[in-house]
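Input (structure):
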């Protein structure tokens, strides 16, 4: 018995490790492209929901998607309403995992678990080839996940297949609404303990497929797991800014409202699930009498009930999204009330990797500094959001609010440059190789360019302040072109972040940054030629045009600072 229990725990650990490995491999394969995709697909709620579905289906983890969203909101790259819509999509996307799990309960001798061990060979080969390491990690995780699920299925069947367990579970299921709450609590606790709603779903499939619990109790467990999965994002947001905390609260409220609706209309809800299952050609789980079924019917039910759980999971999340998507503004107001902002409190920034303790030595110190520089670059990228708000401000009050942020970020970049420079100076006092000293020089150059980016934001604020002071206003055409310039700068920032984040040994060229910088320069030249032509035609006042071109030139100069950073990164490699 003890050996069986240990085997059960080992299979659960294998399942969780496989899930983590598979998700990690997928995220690494998607890389920065996934983050860029998420950052751009925010123009309307439909695109946001689609983004959540696609990204979660790719990384096989709604938790990973939600944590990414929290970090985006924390960086000012996502509006709160857009973040809520993406979370709605993530809840739908996570149902893909349930459908994949259902395949492992396939009827007959074949299931996905059958190919798990042979797949390990191909995963090992792929991981041995540098170019396909991430693919190998994904395949290995996939194999471990389904092998663990298969062993978990076999072991739990042996442990649970006795009359005492069946009587106990039947007793728990015989108390009406209280049983529903009890199994909801079980689903939430399993999800919270294992930090995985996917694991809770797999356990639910196992229990219902073997007839240990009725489908109504499986429904309750799925509802509970949807509440339990919100805890991780709230924990992650506990140290983030106000907007990120609001995003995490919105995730909880969305799932809570969905669960309340399902409970209020419980019987119509499970009947709808039953009809949906029948429409797919499976037996209606509400009408199944597992106890009186013969052996062949039981085998068929074992194969069909996991699909019923997958349908349940999908119907719940789709219906909840369809109902609540129209109430996103109300959700925003509610979480804003729950997490009020302190108007007098300035947003602060603390170094994330460099502490006040003992200075590290050698490569460890340089690696720590590099990590902090990457964070510094992302902070500079965040400043672009406030530049855009200042450019597009409809009122003087809106501009002044954005301008305060630009001034604040200039102060922040000055302070960060000074703190990192102090750290680099202290590191230089230790014994470093010639290569290490050269890398420190490159880091000095990089943080100098980043500080210049912060200065640029404040300079742009001053230009726009003079525009308002002279009662001038950009035309719609001007704003369109300035926003296009900002979009090009955004792409340049993304390329910069990619090059900064990539280990030096894996960075072969900076063509992405060079292409982005060339696009900025060419667009600046185009706008300058258009401006001269417009001045000749008196299309707009000369004074307005002067402010406009000052802004264009300042944005182009930011492109120079950004490309200088990538050049410094690749330059460090050639030392």
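Output (sequence):
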């Amino acid at each position: 018995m003890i050996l069986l229990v240990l085997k059960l725990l080992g299979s659960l650990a294998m399942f969780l490790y496989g899930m983590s490995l598979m998700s990690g491999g997928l995220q690494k394969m998607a890389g920065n492209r996934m983050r860029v995709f998420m950052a751009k697909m925010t123009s309307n709620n439909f695109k946001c929901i689609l983004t959540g579905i696609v990204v979660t289906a790719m990384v096989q983890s709604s938790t990973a998607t939600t944590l990414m969203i929290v970090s985006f909101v924390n960086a000012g790259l996502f509006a709160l309403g857009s973040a809520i819509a993406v979370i709605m999509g993530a809840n739908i996307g996570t149902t893909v995992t349930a459908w994949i799990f259902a395949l492992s309960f396939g009827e007959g001798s074949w299931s996905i678990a059958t190919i798990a061990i042979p797949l390990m060979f191909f995963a090992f080969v792929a991981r041995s080839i540098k170019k396909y390491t991430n693919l190998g990690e994904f395949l290995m995780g996939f194999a471990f996940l389904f092998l663990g699920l298969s062993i978990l299925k076999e072991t739990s069947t042996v442990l649970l297949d006795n009359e005492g367990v069946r009587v106990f579970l039947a007793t728990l299921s015989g108390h009406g609404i209280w049983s529903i709450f009890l199994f909801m609590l079980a689903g939430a606790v399993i999800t919270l303990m294992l930090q995985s709603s996917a694991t809770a779903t797999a356990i639910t499939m196992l229990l219902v497929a073997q007839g240990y619990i009725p489908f109504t109790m499986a429904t309750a467990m799925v509802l509970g797991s949807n509440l339990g999965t919100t805890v991780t994002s709230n924990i992650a947001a506990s140290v983030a800014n106000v907007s990120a905390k609001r995003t995490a609260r919105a995730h909880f409220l969305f799932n809570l409202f969905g669960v309340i609706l399902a409970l209020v209309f419980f019987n119509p809800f499970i009947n709808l699930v039953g009809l949906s299952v029948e429409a797919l050609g499976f037996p209606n789980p509400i009408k199944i009498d597992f106890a009186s079924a013969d052996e062949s019917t039981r085998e068929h039910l074992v194969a069909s009930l996991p699909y019923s759980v997958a349908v349940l999971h999908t119907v719940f999340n789709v219906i909840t999204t369809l109902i609540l998507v129209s109430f996103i503004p109300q959700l925003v107001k509610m979480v804003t009330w729950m997490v009020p902002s302190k108007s007098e409190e300035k947003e602060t920034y603390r170094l994330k990797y460099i502490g006040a303790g003992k200075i590290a030595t050698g490569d460890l110190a340089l690696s720590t500094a590099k990590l902090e520089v990457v964070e510094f670059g992302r902070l500079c990228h965040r400043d672009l959001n406030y530049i855009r708000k200042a450019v597009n401000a409809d009122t003087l009050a809106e501009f002044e609010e954005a301008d305060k942020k630009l001034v604040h970020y200039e102060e922040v970049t000055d302070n960060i440059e000074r703190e990192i420079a102090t750290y680099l100076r202290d590191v230089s006092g230790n014994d470093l190789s010639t290569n290490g000293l050269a890398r420190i020089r490159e880091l000095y150059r990089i943080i100098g360019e980043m500080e210049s980016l912060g200065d640029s934001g404040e300079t742009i604020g001053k230009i726009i302040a003079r525009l308002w002071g002279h009662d001038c206003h950009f035309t719609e055409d001007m704003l369109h072109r300035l926003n296009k310039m900002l979009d090009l700068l955004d792409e340049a920032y993304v390329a910069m972040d990619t090059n900064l984040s990539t280990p030096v040994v894996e960075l072969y060229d900076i063509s992405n940054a060079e292409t982005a910088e060339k696009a900025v320069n060419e667009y600046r030249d185009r706008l300058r030629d258009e401006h001269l032509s417009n001045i000749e035609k008196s299309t707009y006042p000369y004074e307005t045009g002067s402010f406009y071109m000052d802004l264009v030139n300042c944005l182009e100069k930011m492109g120079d600072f950004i490309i200088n950073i990538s050049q410094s990164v690749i330059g460090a490699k050639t030392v």
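Notes: The first helix runs from residue 2 to 40. The chain has two domains: 2-338, 362-573.
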